[in-house]
Amino acid sequence: MSRPRVAITTGEPAGIGPEIAIRAAWAMRQRVNAVLVGDAAFLAMTAAEIDPAIRISAVSTMAARNAGLPHFGADRLCALDIPLGAHVQPGVLDKENGRYVLATLDAAIEGVQAGWFDAVATAPVQKSTINDAGVAFTGHTEYFAEQTGTARVVMMLAGQPHSPWPAAASAAVPPQLRVALATTHLPLKDVSAALTLDSLAQTLNILEADLRRKFGLAAPRILVAGLNPHAGENGYLGREEIDTISPALAAARERGIDARGPYPADTLFQPKYLQDADCVLAMYHDQGLPVLKYATFGHGVNITLGLPLIRTSVDHGTALDLAAQGLGRADCSSMQAALEAALQMVQASRP
Ligand SMILES: NC(=O)c1ccc[n+]([C@@H]2O[C@H](COP(=O)([O-])OP(=O)(O)OC[C@H]3O[C@@H](n4cnc5c(N)ncnc54)[C@H](O)[C@@H]3O)[C@@H](O)[C@H]2O)c1
Ligand SMILES: N[C@H](C(=O)O)[C@H](O)COP(=O)(O)O
C-alpha cells in the first residue's frame, strides 16, 4: 500500500508545534508521506537545527492548486508553504501570526477536499493568539466543523495508560482509554443548557458510528457520566440526569446504542467499569480530560469524530515555556501517536 499522505499543520510558530511536527514526520517518513503545512523557510531552518540530514522541499499552494502535490520519496519531507505574518521569537506570542495559523488549517482542509491529503494531523495552536488577531476561535474541533459545514462533531481523546496511573497495573483495563465529550470548549456556566435530548442524541449517534467505522468496534460500549456530583443524587444535587441525560440514554438504547449510565463521574474511571467499556462519554471538557491526561499525557491523541475528513491531534498545548528554552526539550510522542492514529483511520476507511 502506498504511504498515506497526511497534512501536518505546524501550529503556533512560537510554540513547540514546528519542532514536534518535523521530528514526528521525519521519524515516521517510511510509513507516512507527511506534508508540513507552514512557512517553508522557517520550517527548513528549524529542521536544519534539529538534524542537518532532514531535507524539506517546498511547494506553494498555487502550484498545488494548479497541478496537485508532486510525489516525493521517503528521503525528504514536503512543506506546503504558507508565509508567516511576522518574525518568530520562540516562546513569545505575536498576534500578527494568528491569521497565519488559521491559514495553515484552511490549506489543510482545502487539501483534503481537493484530494491532496488523506488526513490531517494538527500540532497545537495558541487559541488566545488567534482571538487576539481578531478571529473568534475556540479550537480546531469547532473550526474544522465550521469550515466543513458539519453541524455537530465530537471531541474524543484516547491513549494507552502509563504508570503511575493505578489502573495501568490491572490486566482488566482495556489497553486504550477513550474519553469523548458531550460539549467541547464551552464555559462551565453554559454546559447545562448545552445538554439537551437532541444534542446528546446526536453526540451518541456520532460516537457510536465512528467507533464502529473508524475503530473497528462491532458494538461499541459507551459509559456515560452524569453532570452533577453523584450523578445528581436522585435530583437533590441537580436535575439534568433525571430530566435530560437518562431519557437521552434510554432513547439511544432504543436505537440500538449500548449507552449506559449516567454514572457519577468521580467513581466511573475504575477498572471494574472500564473493563466493560470502549469509551467514556463525559459531559464537559474538564470532567473527562484531566483523567485521560493523568493516565496518558504525552502519548494521547485527540480525534474529531463526525467530520467528513480524518483529523487527529496531540494531547498537549503549545508549551511556550519549553519553546523559549530552545529546541530539544519537547517530546514528540503525542505527535507520532496522532500520525499513527491517522494512518490507522485512513487504512480503516480504504476499501
Ligand atoms: N491541539 C491543540 O491545538 C491544543 C491542545 C491543548 C492545548 N492547546 C493550547 O495550548 C496553549 C497552552 O496550553 P497549556 O499551557 O494549558 O498546556 P500545555 O500542554 O502547552 O503545557 C502544559 C505543561 O505540559 C508541558 N508540555 C506540553 N507539551 C509537552 C511536550 N510535547 N513535551 C514535554 N512537555 C510538554 C509544558 O511544558 C507545560 O509544563 C493554550 O492556548 C491551549 O488552548 C492547544
Ligand atoms: N481540548 C483539547 C485538549 O485539551 O487537549 C485542546 O484544547 C485542543 O482542542 P482542539 O483540538 O479543538 O484544538
From TrEMBL:
SUPFAM superfamilies according to UniProt: Isocitrate/Isopropylmalate dehydrogenase-like
What is this protein identified as?
Answer: 4-hydroxythreonine-4-phosphate dehydrogenase
Query: Quick one: which gene encodes this?
Result: pdxA
Q: What else is known?
A: The active site is located at the dimer interface.
HAMAP family per the record? PdxA
Name the chemical reaction catalysed here: 4-(phosphooxy)-L-threonine + NAD(+) = 3-amino-2-oxopropyl phosphate + CO2 + NADH
Q: Which Pfam families match?
A: PdxA
Residues bound to substrate: H140, T141, K293, N302, R311
Q: Which organism is it from?
A: Pseudoduganella guangdongensis
Q: What is its EC number?
A: 1.1.1.262
InterPro entries listed in its UniProt record: PdxA (IPR037510), PdxA_fam (IPR005255)
Q: Please describe what this protein does.
A: Catalyzes the NAD(P)-dependent oxidation of 4-(phosphooxy)-L-threonine (HTP) into 2-amino-3-oxo-4-(phosphooxy)butyric acid which spontaneously decarboxylates to form 3-amino-2-oxopropyl phosphate (AHAP).
Q: Where can this protein be found?
A: Cytoplasm
GO biological process per UniProt: pyridoxal phosphate biosynthetic process; pyridoxine biosynthetic process
EC class = oxidoreductase
Question: Which key words are in the record?
Answer: Cobalt, Cytoplasm, Magnesium, Metal-binding, NAD, NADP, Oxidoreductase, Pyridoxine biosynthesis, Zinc
MF-aspect GO terms: 4-hydroxythreonine-4-phosphate dehydrogenase activity; cobalt ion binding; magnesium ion binding; NAD binding; zinc ion binding
NCBIfam families assigned:
pdxA (TIGR00557), PRK01909.1 (NF002520)
Kindly state the subunit structure of this protein: Homodimer.
Q: Quick one: which residues bind a divalent metal cation?
A: H185, H230, H285
Family to which this protein belongs:
Belongs to the PdxA family.
